[in-house]
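Q: Got a minute? One more chain.
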Amino acid sequence: MRDTPVEAAECNCSICRRTAGLWHYCAPDALDVAGEAASYQQGDRALDLWHCPTCGCTTHWSPTDRAYPRVGVNLRMFDTTLWSDLPRRAVDGASF
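A: Always. Here it is, folded:
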């Protein structure tokens, strides 16, 4: 992640609740992923949810439509000093 988060998004959809995602949204080219990751698609298959193949933690999501201009990075994969004091924005993903 090449930019500094200024807020954290908490989505209430079923997958975000289960993965405990706390999201920072950024442009796809602002994200560098080191190592291996495995993806999973749920429901409408609009997103690839990426997770560590060793521990299973959800690291980020990317759109299946490569023209979509953002990805989501799970801030909980970083030290709490990066995200604990960030303002939270509620995202109502459960209503879609």
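A: The CA atoms of residues 46 and 64 lie 5 Å apart.
Q: Perfect, thanks.
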